[in-house]
Amino acid sequence: MPLSEDAIARGVPRDAAALPGVAPRPAETWLRIVQVHDRITRRVDSALHRHHGLSLTGFEALRRIADSPGERASMGEVAEAVGLSRPGVTSTINRLVTEGLVIRERVEGDKRLLHARLTPAGRERVEAARVTHDELVAHLLTLIGDDAAVVTDALARVSAATRSRR
Q1: Any idea where the domains of the chain sit in the sequence?
Q2: Are 59 and 52 in contact (CB under 8 A)?
Q3: What is the 8-class DSSP label of residue 24?
Q4: Which candidate, 87, 40, 44, places its Cα nearest to that of 63?
Q5: CB neighbour list of residue 103: distance below 8 Å, 6 or more residues apart
Q6: Which helix (H) or strand (E) holds 97?
Q7: CATH number belonging to the domain at 26-140, selected among 1.10.10.10, 3.40.50.720, 3.40.30.10, 3.40.50.10090
Q8: 148 in Cβ contact with 68 (< 8 Å)
Q9: Which GO MF term does the entry hold, naming one (predicted)?
Q10: 4: Cβ–Cβ under 8 A, 6 or more apart, which residues?
């Protein structure tokens, strides 16, 4: 006895949008973004600690300083680039100073403005860690596959729309 169409299709959504992952709800999209960020961050942080004795935050601060003119950046520039509060950047820079990777210096003409400048040891450490960071991140992001341009464009639009206006 042949099964009816209803019996064959029982439990199968008629609308493709009802399938998981096809048209995710905003809460699902948000959860995926948070999970991916958290997992990549933990993986990269672990590799940087293991191979270079640096946290991801320390690496990002060093990288920002290394990429600045004269390998020098203000505390505000580092905080903005790394997404830290003023106390957070102070704590991070304190650790880097203690390790001999950066020094603090005042700027000519404005003694109130404090900068962090890379030391030769800091330059060496950030360049070695840069290779580990960039290769690991590139490898993890290859999992996006052919959708990389679409994902990057979508995230850039959200980022631009949420950028703080001062």
Answers
A1: 26-140
A2: yes
A3: -
A4: 44
A5: 97, 116, 117, 119
A6: helix 86-98
A7: 1.10.10.10
A8: no
A9: DNA-binding transcription factor activity
A10: none
**The one-letter amino acid at 43:** R
SS3 state at 85? coil
Q: What is the pLDDT of residues 59-85, one digit of tens each?
A: 999 999 999 999 999 999 999 989 899
User: 122-142 as b/e, with b when 16 or more CB fall inside 10 Å?
Assistant: bbebbeebbebbeebeeeeee
Residue 141: band (very low, low, confident or very high) from pLDDT cuts 50, 70, 90: confident
Q: Where are the beta strands (DSSP E) in 17-124?
A: 72-74, 102-107, 110-118
pLDDT on residue 11: 63
CA distance 92 to 57: 7
Q: How far apart are the first and last CA of the chain?
A: 72
The pLDDT score that the predictor gives to residue 25 is 83
- The reported pTM is 0.77
Spatial CB neighbours of 62, under 8 Å, sequence gap ≥ 6: 54, 96, 101, 102, 118, 122, 125, 126, 129
Token pair 């020094």 is found at 103
